[in-house]
What does this fold into?
Amino acid sequence: MTFKQLQEEVVARGFENIATDTGGEARIKRWINQAYREIIDTRAWAFLEATKEGLTPLAIADLGHVLSVTDVTHETLLSYVERAVLLHWDPALTGKGSADRWYLESGTTLKVYPADAASTFLVRYLKEVADLVADGDEPVIPAAYHGVIEDGAVVRAYKTTDNYEAGQFVRQEYDRGLKSMVRGLRVNYDSAKTIVRTGTVNDYL
It folds into this structure.
């Protein structure tokens, strides 16, 4: 559904009076976006995953949460460090050697330490999702689960009208829908394995 269709569905669930009130349309739009954001923030959804590869500094406009940073050139995985911690160690950030840490600057620019302008780095991340604004905007959530957004908005509408009993019922439907979404969009049904090695260290060198 588009943003406009979501608004129409919410209104059709008994909130025509709110839609015609002064500022009512804006409130309905806000409830939809609040429900949308709540769902997005519930899990590290696979549909939000993206990658960007290149030289650093690496600007990623839609960066939400970093999942991993790999030095493709040297086939190594970097660890995160806060920029403030690096400045404590090296105020000028002039360290030498192979990069083994990554940090963020200005929220969306990824840098490595020690600085390395020659190697290629691959960033796996979750995209930051913008609010729905235009009538034709569509949620990034798969279409089969757009009804969960609708339920989340309706819960907020009932709360505003002090109809807590109806709101509680819809909240249960919303929770069921969210659980269904978690199950349906799960990409891994395997379990983590532990590798147990026996013998001495020299057996693996």
